[in-house]
Amino acid sequence: MIPVILAGGKGERFWPLSRRSRPKQFLSLDGSGISLLQATANRLLAVAGGWEGLWVVTNAQIADGIKEQLPQLPEKNILIEPEGRDTAPAVAWAAIEIERREGPEAVVGFFPADHWIGDEEAYGKTLAAASQLATEKPAIVTLGIEPTEPSTGYGYIEQAEAVAPYQGLNAYRVSRFTEKPDRAKAEEFIATGRYTWNSGMFIFRAGVVIEELKTHAPEIFEPLAQKGVAAYADLPKKSIDYALMEKTQLAYVIPAAFGWDDLGDWNALERLLKGDRTNVELANHIGLDTQGAILYASSDDERIVTIGLEDIVIVRDRNVTLIVKKDRTQDIKQVLKQLENDPRFSSEL
């Protein structure tokens, strides 16, 4: 498999730690010193057969940072978008380039740069199953995460009929993709036993997805095929889910249970790190009657002192302190829009 890491996102809900020049995928959120991007690359090297087989799609603003983070990655394997146009153009451009270089039978996988994987052995087994399915069938395979709760934060994939197991794992045709539901609908989905979360990971042969893009997303594929990166300014902003996965008849899903989190906002640290502790503390913290808090400081010189607080996130990074209730972290993006419109705060973005 040729793994392609999608590394153009901003990760705005991890602001102020995540900024334009230091997006979420460049961060180490667990105190290990290894960034999310580096961790993603490291676990994909085995299926890539080394650095020569690994690709990255990113944007011009952070391309130099990608090279610093992954110095062993060949520059010819870094596709630099002049501007972000969501995932459909990124997938289409990479598929075109890989088919040109490796041929239409090359099996390609697309992986977000900023996810957490718990069981790498099970992850590798799932990728092997997906690769086999994509090799044997004209298939666009997605990895579906077995739900642990009726989450309203993820899209859902409904399974249709089963196909033969691959590497001992069940696989199904996809009945439909559903956008983020309300809680009642999410509970209904889970009760059926036929739904998984959409992980945003896809595996297919380059030639298969190119033919599907020609059919279902010609407004993206044709300009890229004719002009390459020069077409970007005129491309529509579309996700690969909307542009292709919701339309294709070649979608398959393999339900996966390898421990996964998309690290959507600061609350993810609690899911991964809290255990039986009162608070999640990635900072020098002194607290009195404080519980259920997530505390992060980017420097060991910073001190955070709290008294009588519950269910709150406090992040200290350089010249910014964020204090937000845990149930309002999704609203960080609204605050960033305010900062964008105020020239006094441009350096904080």
From TrEMBL:
Q: Which UniProt keywords apply?
A: Nucleotidyltransferase, Transferase
Q: Which InterPro entries match?
A: GMPP_N, ManC/GMP-like_b-helix, Mannose-6P_isomerase_type2, NTP_transferase_dom, Nucleotide-diphossugar_trans
List the residue ranges forming a coiled coil, or say none: none
| Gene3D superfamilies assigned to the protein according to its UniProt record, in alphabetical order | Spore Coat Polysaccharide Biosynthesis Protein SpsA, Chain A
- Please state every residue range assigned to the domain named MannoseP isomerase/GMP-like beta-helix: 284-339
Q: Where is the Nucleotidyl transferase domain?
A: 3-272
From the Swiss-Prot or TrEMBL record, give the protein name: Mannose-1-phosphate guanylyltransferase
Organism this protein belongs to: Laspinema olomoucense D3b
Pfam families according to UniProt:
ManC_GMP_beta-helix (PF22640), NTP_transferase (PF00483)
Q: Name one GO molecular function term.
A: nucleotidyltransferase activity
